[in-house]
Amino acid sequence: MARRKSVNLFWPIMIAALVMAGCMNLVNSVFGDEETAVKAAPVPSPGPLPNLARNSLDQAKSQLESRGLRLVAEGIGGRDYCFQDAYCFIYRMTPKAGTVVKPGDEVQVRFVTGPEWGFYKDHRRMPKVVGWSEDRAKRVFDLVSEVVETDEKEVSTVPKGESRVIGQSPKAGTRLRIGQTIKLVIGYNYGWSTSGGGGGGGGVDTDVHHDSHESRFCSRRWWC
After folding, report:
1. From start to end of 2-124, where are the E strands?
2. Sheet containing 148-154, strands listed edge to edge, beginning at the edge strand earlier in sequence
3. Is residue 35 predicted with pLDDT exceeding 60?
4. pLDDT, tens digit, 9 for 90 and up, residues 132-182
5. Which residues lie across from 73 on neighbouring strands?
């Protein structure tokens, strides 16, 4: 009988294994090994906080997120967002620059828009607004209206049909801090009269617009 010839499979198997290993290395070199990439990513470590003053909110957010820090932003009047298409930059931060912080820590910043910064640059001290018309005061403080509080008071010293500033805080000449509350007292004298004669009485003449049913004076007031 003819003897069966044995086949040695060792070398073919080894060659196939080497070829497959080479292919896997080639694939990893091209596309990368996701698990290895995750392990190789640098872990943020504690370090000094950079100076964020005059940086935009977007720049500050990128810097802090890269170090695993949380950004809490607040604008004047308590606003926590930047208007769309507005340039907002930081003028104050807590903790201070140079403080050692670790990943997960919170960094609080205060910011202003470009126009708001322009107002404080032009008004480093509180102007004397007593005697101004209400409309003039509104125009001057329009850019920072979120920090302006007003109160009204009827007085006879103001000309009839007009409204003027009769009180202010802070006082004129006081250094004006960014975001500081500005209080104005508006004195008004609408010159209302009671119609009707004798003992019949009558109603108050409020000069109401017939189209909008709104007082002519109320239509110009901030709080109406």
Report:
1. 47-48, 70-75, 88-94, 100-101, 106-113
2. 148-154, 182-189, 162-169
3. no
4. 999 999 999 999 999 999 999 999 999 999 999 999 999 999 999 999 999
5. 109
One of 3.40.50.2000, 3.30.10.20, 3.40.50.720, 3.40.50.620 is the CATH number of 124-193+208-220, namely 3.30.10.20
- CATH top class, domain 47-117: alpha beta
Q: Which residues of 38-75 are buried (b: 16+ CB within 10 A; e: fewer)?
A: eeeeeeeeeeebbebeebebeebbebbeebebebebeb
Residues 48-52, mean pLDDT to the nearest whole number:
95
- Nearest-angstrom CA–CA distance, 79 and 206: 37
In tens, the pLDDT along 52-85 reads 999 999 899 999 999 999 999 999 988 888 877 7
